[in-house]
UniProtKB/TrEMBL annotation:
The keyword Signal does not apply. Residues 1-37, 361-402 are annotated as: Disordered. It holds the Pfam family TPR_8. This is TPR domain protein.
Length: 402
């Protein structure tokens, strides 16, 4: 599981948010007397349907009308913070989460009243300092979740059982978040490997069938050069959801599956990685990273003289398979580069690597003509044919005259 990243910052998010709030003045007056909880429900609905600006207006109204130090205020702070993050205004989102911490410093207020671990986990992901600061927030989140889990286990019931599974999953992910920091920002610490091992052991005990946890286990094993164990963990992670429909809640989110494809490529399971990436493209064909990884994956398959087969191509020669993979790789990478420009993607290393791979393949396959060049060549060929016909026709007339 890769460390969750906030959405890319969008242009003029602060000004857009402010304009919505000011433009919605008349709506604000009408809604101000409504129950803050109803406003937050409406805001959540708008956010889920892709209307973050409208959601912000409603959530801000709820925050303004909520009594000081009340559960309604706490809930509104969390919701407003999440919407600002969605809009790309990370700083303002972080400020709202910090205000929520002041009202619930240990996360012991029930989640139904706006408390719980959520604000700590957000602050861990949004930390400007990273490293130990992120670890501190993750640990506060884990502590809050332990408290909640203990309470749920004391009052078993159908609803509590479902919530218990969800909270354990969230706690395991938080433990994995800490482990990944010790694999990256804090990898220089003497006890980093020991801490990773302790964290992933607890995460597996809490949520043994969580795909994200198994991916983190694989990542740790890769860093330890225990490749076979990493492959086994990734195979199990993929098997948990690969045959499920996209809408099934068991299927990990898009970013987690992108991370899975990278890990599969790292341990030499390119065919499985490509299977994951093809599914991601079907869900979102505007993902620069998915197209790029698919192209890179196919290039790696070409290096092994392999190609994805549907059964009919199984008997083809290694060289034919290599050529097929290179052709497909170039197309995936060209699509990635085209989207890169259209969407103004910001990962320069991705672009440079994609261009490098395409350049290498052009040397072997030859430069591809674009559609305009191909059209000109076809027109030229038709022109030569017409000219030949005219010459032959003139010759016929001359023979007739003679």
């Amino acid at each position: 599981m890769g460390k969750p990243r906030p959405p890319q910052k969008k242009k003029s998010s602060k000004s857009r948010a402010k304009s919505v709030l000011s433009a919605g003045g008349s709506v604000s007056k009408q809604k101000m007397n409504e129950d803050p909880s109803k406003l937050l429900e409406q805001a959540t609905t708008e956010l889920q349907t892709g209307q973050p600006d409208v959601a912000l207006s409603l959530a801000q109204q709820a925050l303004n009308s909520a009594p000081a130090n009340s559960p309604a205020q706490l809930s509104a702070l969390i919701t407003v913070g999440e919407i600002y993050v969605e809009l790309g205004d990370i700083d303002t989102g972080r400020q709202h989460f910090m205000r929520a911490v002041e009202l619930d410093p240990n996360g012991t207020i029930p989640e139904s009243q706006g408390g719980g671990a959520g604000k700590f986990l957000w602050l861990a992901q949004l930390s400007e300092l990273g490293g130990r600061d992120s670890v501190q927030w993750f640990e506060k989140g884990v502590s809050s979740l332990r408290h909640t889990i203990q309470q749920l286990e004391q009052n078993p019931g159908p609803e509590e059982a479902l919530e218990l599974v969800e909270k354990k999953h969230k706690m395991a992910n938080a433990l994995c978040g800490v482990a990944e920091i010790y694999m990256t920002d804090l990898s220089w610490e003497e006890d980093a490997e020991t801490r990773c091992e302790t964290l992933i052991t607890e995460a597996i005990l809490v949520a043994p069938n969580a795909p994200e946890v198994l991916q983190t286990l694989a990542s740790i094993r890769i860093s330890q050069l225990r490749t076979e164990e990493a492959q086994a963990a990734l195979t199990k992670s993929l098997a948990l959801w690969k045959d499920l429909p996209p809408e099934d809640p068991t299927v990990p989110d898009f970013a987690t599956r992108i991370s899975l494809s990278r890990l599969l490529m790292e341990v030499g399971k390119e065919l499985e990685a490509l299977e994951v990436l093809e599914r991601l493209i079907l869900e979102d064909d505007q993902s620069v990273e998915a197209w790029y990884l698919g192209g890179w994956c196919l290039q790696l398959l070409a290096g092994k003289q392999q190609a994805p087969t549907d059964g009919e191509e199984a008997d083809e020669s290694p060289e034919v398979k290599r050529h097929a993979s290179l052709d497909a790789s170039r197309e995936w990478l060209k699509q990635s580069l085209a989207l890169y420009e259209v969407l103004q993607y910001e990962d320069e290393r991705l672009k440079d690597h994609a261009l490098e791979l395409v350049s290498e393949m052009n040397k072997e396959l030859g430069e591809e003509m674009d559609d305009d060049e191909a059209g000109e060549d076809e027109d030229n060929e038709e022109g030569w044919e017409d000219e030949e016909i005219e010459v032959e026709s003139d010759g016929d007339h001359e023979m007739a005259d003679s």
